[in-house]
């Protein structure tokens, strides 16, 4: 997992070719990458592609597996306008949540998205705005096990997608989740 975080650290600077300072520059560059990956660890939205066992596949999704769509999601920089390849389509209740990371730091407000099957001991009925839950999602560092409040709930089709970040040009694999209303056909 660490290699993904470093790979998506966002450090786009190139090193000078001055050979007598290469050793120092490499050490400084590595420290910058490690620092940047720590600061931006929560922005790495790649995943293994594993989904909860009880997550229901969408039988007839608007965007079938392997098709492409344009994202209008703004969960993180580089998503809006990116061409997404559909890796999976599922029918569930999706939530925006506010939570305090288990790793410390600032409260994350209105995080989009966590699905019903990623909540600890989830009841059968969907949760409503204001309900308190415990997250089992691991999309971001400090999310798994965090206490959260439901900000909104929507019964819809969610998609796992892969795409090239429009800003960094890095490939994000198996991003969880994008809702159907955040996608539009490729023209």
From TrEMBL:
Domain DUF1541 residues, every copy: 66-116, 130-180
Composition skew (Basic and acidic residues), residue ranges: 30-43
Source domain of life: Bacteria
Entries under InterPro entries matching the protein: DUF1541
Name of the protein in its database record: DUF1541 domain-containing protein
Region span, Disordered: 6-64
Organism in which the protein naturally occurs: Gracilibacillus dipsosauri
């Amino acid at each position: 997992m660490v290699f993904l975080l470093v790979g998506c650290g966002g450090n786009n600077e190139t090193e000078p070719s001055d050979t007598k300072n290469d050793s120092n520059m490499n050490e400084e560059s590595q420290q910058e990458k490690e620092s940047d990956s720590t600061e931006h660890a929560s922005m790495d939205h790649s995943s293994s592609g594993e989904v909860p066992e009880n997550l229901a596949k969408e039988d007839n999704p608007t965007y079938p597996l392997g098709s492409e769509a344009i994202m209008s999601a703004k969960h993180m920089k580089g998503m809006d306008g990116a061409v997404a390849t559909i890796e999976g389509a599922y029918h569930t209740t999706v939530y925006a949540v506010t939570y305090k990371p288990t790793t410390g730091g600032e409260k994350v407000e209105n995080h989009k998205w966590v699905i019903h099957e990623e909540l600890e001991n989830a009841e059968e009925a969907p949760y409503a705005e204001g309900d308190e839950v415990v997250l089992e999602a691991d999309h971001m560092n400090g999310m798994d096990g965090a206490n959260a409040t439901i900000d909104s709930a929507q019964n819809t089709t969610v998609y796992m997608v892969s795409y090239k970040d429009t800003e960094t040009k890095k490939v994000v694999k198996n991003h969880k989740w994008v809702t159907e209303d955040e996608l539009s056909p490729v023209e």
